[in-house]
User: What shape does this take?
Amino acid sequence: MNQKKLNIGLIGCGFMGRTHSNAFRQAGVFFQPEFTPVLKAVCARTADTVENFAAQWGYESTETDWRKLIERDDIDLVDIATPNDSHYEIAIAAAEAGKMVMCEKPLGRSAKESAAMTAAVESAGVANMVWYNYRRIPAVTLAKQIIDEGKLGKIFHYRANFLQDWTIATDLPQGGEALWRLDKDVAGSGVTGDLLAHCIDTAMWLNGGIAEVSGMTETFVKERQHQLTGKVQPVTIDDASIFLARFANGSIGQFEATRYARGHKALYTLEINGEHASLKWDLHDLHRLQMFDHADEGRTRGWRSVHITDGDHPYMDRWWVPGLQIGYEHSFTHQFADFLTGIASDQPLSPSFAEALNTDRVTDAVLASAETRQWKTIGN
Amino acid sequence: MNQKKLNIGLIGCGFMGRTHSNAFRQAGVFFQPEFTPVLKAVCARTADTVENFAAQWGYESTETDWRKLIERDDIDLVDIATPNDSHYEIAIAAAEAGKMVMCEKPLGRSAKESAAMTAAVESAGVANMVWYNYRRIPAVTLAKQIIDEGKLGKIFHYRANFLQDWTIATDLPQGGEALWRLDKDVAGSGVTGDLLAHCIDTAMWLNGGIAEVSGMTETFVKERQHQLTGKVQPVTIDDASIFLARFANGSIGQFEATRYARGHKALYTLEINGEHASLKWDLHDLHRLQMFDHADEGRTRGWRSVHITDGDHPYMDRWWVPGLQIGYEHSFTHQFADFLTGIASDQPLSPSFAEALNTDRVTDAVLASAETRQWKTIGN
Amino acid sequence: MNQKKLNIGLIGCGFMGRTHSNAFRQAGVFFQPEFTPVLKAVCARTADTVENFAAQWGYESTETDWRKLIERDDIDLVDIATPNDSHYEIAIAAAEAGKMVMCEKPLGRSAKESAAMTAAVESAGVANMVWYNYRRIPAVTLAKQIIDEGKLGKIFHYRANFLQDWTIATDLPQGGEALWRLDKDVAGSGVTGDLLAHCIDTAMWLNGGIAEVSGMTETFVKERQHQLTGKVQPVTIDDASIFLARFANGSIGQFEATRYARGHKALYTLEINGEHASLKWDLHDLHRLQMFDHADEGRTRGWRSVHITDGDHPYMDRWWVPGLQIGYEHSFTHQFADFLTGIASDQPLSPSFAEALNTDRVTDAVLASAETRQWKTIGN
Amino acid sequence: MNQKKLNIGLIGCGFMGRTHSNAFRQAGVFFQPEFTPVLKAVCARTADTVENFAAQWGYESTETDWRKLIERDDIDLVDIATPNDSHYEIAIAAAEAGKMVMCEKPLGRSAKESAAMTAAVESAGVANMVWYNYRRIPAVTLAKQIIDEGKLGKIFHYRANFLQDWTIATDLPQGGEALWRLDKDVAGSGVTGDLLAHCIDTAMWLNGGIAEVSGMTETFVKERQHQLTGKVQPVTIDDASIFLARFANGSIGQFEATRYARGHKALYTLEINGEHASLKWDLHDLHRLQMFDHADEGRTRGWRSVHITDGDHPYMDRWWVPGLQIGYEHSFTHQFADFLTGIASDQPLSPSFAEALNTDRVTDAVLASAETRQWKTIGN
Assistant: This one.
């Protein structure tokens, strides 16, 4: 039986607090890891909120000050699910306290913050991971396997979009509890850090490093009432962000993220074209991978819609039977199961803080390029 | 150069008169046949109608009595595109006059009529063909090739639907010029002869003979005003027709046709499931063939959407370049090109009157089964 | 806080034991019901099996004799997830012991068994429900709402298929632990009770009672080695089952289930065509509902692919945010959440044993029709 | 009856010569224009080629020197379907001879050539049009109507890709008869002028002028054997071309064209996102328009797949009946029918040379931007 326990302290009770909590619960049951996750404590600023959350999810205790949670001896892993502006301080404090650290993406509000956070976990030598969950959608993981096997040959093109439409209404306020993603001080940026960061993380995982970018951003609604001040204030985030990219392997890419694409709720799409084969995937039908294999016989060659629900598909032997799809939340469960496996076997955890820092270097470059109207090389 | 000419006499200026005329014109250009089709004469009862039609399509002359057209020495091929109730008389007269005969489907209003028509062309020894045009949609022709190559292995299932929705309105009249398909005396039956006949023709072509059927029909709107009498009269056609089938090869089938499937204009779908592979096609995306090949590697096995626009796809070397789709009308052009090739090379013409008679035996059996509520064996 | 507890005793540790257990766990967290589900005991014949299962899923105790479990005072709800041949005995015993009873579908192996089971729960006055889980796929629940609102008008057609391909290999054995679905004594029937039953339950829920049927079955592979006896024995289940139906409301239907449709893993499809609108859904893209609304403006009328992930879609306010799909397992969670709500509010539980009995009457009629080659009226 | 004749002189017998010839023939029949098109003469350099072409398509006479054709009094319209490097000279000569001029796209090899060509037709006052045929795909024309009616509201985003894969093989030669598109001297540029030009023409037609661009090009295969010289020579065209755009109306766009997108034959896709609604279309399913209308009721809002085959869809009243799709070639027929209507009614012809010049200004800017790595403003 699983004797080892991993005590988790979650900070943040919002949308991501929920996805992580579900992952902690489900990974234990479905993946039967060596370490059994224990929902030891949860922290949020408001006592009512955190107590309700703990009752709902089964956390053993609560805190209202994250520093208290980090100080506790009975916490092994600090999981950060707060708005972006507190990632930096919490992660560094947790690392210095010797805790394992998992952090919701983006790592920091800028590569500068992320670099310090990365230095902190590396210097402390603590296990660390960032919740770029889409890598663990089984279809995406399978894409990675196929690419790594060399099936695509030389890569020519990479394309990724992340299209949403929830901020089109001009009377939507900005800032505050639910809408901090529209407040640059809190979020760091708009769609670049929120949505493009996902696209970039997956792209570099699948297709290697990005060498240079030319970006462009737009803020369609220039002013919105701020929830905290009550005043109509300029909107300072990027509503939309597009960029061209050159990858280190010679392939070229185009990326776009927006919250103004009417009709698309969370349409993250990616496509990669190689010499021999191509792959496509999107989040609105996340249980399918599209593949075109030029080696197929000519007359009957076509894009295959692969229903990723079989036992030989990544992670799927843990779930149901062929034909029965899983959903969005499972990507977090898979990531946490891999985290548990990683710490048990002392294998690399990925995406690490260092990898997430690389993503932030690209998002910083995109924003800088958009501002200066110049191509930007990605440094380190 | 093409020295031989084939003089065509078309009877009927409706929808099918138009599709046939286009085929005559286009086959000559795109397939460069040994016999050059000549639009020699067209016939319809009303002088104005037939003269306008001839002017539009380039027919050299007109007739208003089909018997006159058949008598003419300068006509090689009589093409019948009239409502169903005149197919019988015209076809037999044309055969007896020694003309080649092409006939719009269904051949007769019943197997009895069709048997006499078949006997007439066979006894006269004249070239004959029935316009079951869907066999010559390139995707369907490719399906035939794949099945004949044995790629599917033993067949288990066949499914075909033909779904329309244009007669739902209760104030739609029946009978007369445009609506003769709703008049049983003229049409012979409702959707069974009109739509199911297509499904059955393709099914037997792809999957062999049908041994027995259990059918069911329904007339949803019981009375409609008749266009000719002006009176509200009972509707005697079948609005919908469904049947179960056993094929001679041991596979089983389900078929359905209706004009009450809201949202579907002309959705002819077919699917065939074999031991090793399956195929699907539908008329609303007629330029695609769906194929599932179990021999594909397990992880990346999926339904392939094959875009039938390449030079190695049936008929497609005559049209454009890969990726550029053709349409509905081309199926008639292909059929007529094959007719021209067939008569030049003395090869079998298919579907012949004899094949179309077999289809009518099945439609008769479906109607008889629906009426008697018994399974019916298909005789000959 | 949730003070009331509902103690669950699960019988059966197979595939359905897993889906139910997940539902018990997740319903408590995501739906915050008045009754908190407690995984009190689980029962299976083999001690090792049941102990491992209990450890994995968090059951407090185990039994190896289901009668013992039923006798226990600390069990409120008996949940039956065993093969079909023990549903009858367990359900009746549980009802007689005054327990609430949930039973995996089909209820009995025949309407005769199901009638006795229904009488038992009704006579005992205990809460009862059958796991026809597909009603609680949010897209299917939404279809029900739309139909009940009258949006479709008069119904003309209903179509449902359940297509699988996992028994095509002739060397697949029958019977025993994992393959009892191929053993008629255990399962009651083949695909009729296993797959068609789902189609029939949903159909009658959405479109009302079925009046009569004409069915046809086929067993493609006639002999298989039996896992328990080791001998090659005749296969007595139906591998495929198709039927025509007349509904009480005058609409007509076609249904098919098979395990020989190469390329389809668990493709449950349904479509309903009404005077004003039509709906389509399938299990391979379970998070989408297709709708055609004839009231839309003519030029831009088309099938809408509705991504069922919004807060105003059934059950979806409990999960994530728009665009993020859930999966198969959630249908069980929703059903159990509704069960908990139902018993707390004394509202009807559906599908009840009585409703499942009606489904079994139809499956019995389909099988009888196939055997006698006659139409069968559905009695009560 | 149609008494007026329009005598056509076609120059060029390649792929585009075929599409134009088909359009001349079909427009006369299906659109019954006031002017009847007459295939008076066709010209190509090789006598055999041009005679075969004339015989196949029904041209009355042939020329092997385009200057001769232009000099002829019996030619009203000169249609240019030659490789790009002769558009300039022919168009100007034809205009100076007072002929109507239609020219295959792109107009010139550069905006400089196009400006002179435009000046020539405007100075001569002759009817002129450029074959940007995709505007007349009925789904695209319908998109234009919907946008012009204001249905989309303020536009935020425009996206277009044109993806092909036919030049991936490294042993494909460049230049010469069939492969002049790979020869920069003849073509002017690679995919920018060939494919992106289509995307830009449609984009500006639907969404107004483009103000500035940031582009990037790539040549994946650096050397190929040249068909004319037989030598391995550097490839100087752009194999792929991507750019970001700012439209005059404030919306932003991304565009991509490539011949290295494995799996895509001719996948021209476009999408436009507005405040109230969005539209999508692609060339591989050219008979469908996707529309999302935010005004639809929330629960059943979704992307509509509109099957553009009804009588109230643009141009479709001239073809068949609902549900029956047309193909690629029809876009040329529609354009020529509109040309005939335009000259009969003295209405503007579009796209005119002046409009095509604007497109070339954008393609020039894309190439210049790619070379200089700077944003480029579109001048006039």
Remarks:
- Residues 353-372 of chain B form the longest helix (20 residues).
- The two ends of chain B are 45 Å apart (CA to CA).
- The interface with chain C takes residues 152, 156-157, 159, 161, 163, 165, 168, 214, 216, 218, 220, 240, 242-244, 246, 250, 252, 254, 256, 258, 260-264, 273-278, 292, 294, 303, 373-375 of chain B (CB under 8 Å).
- DSSP finds eleven helices and 17 strands in chain B.
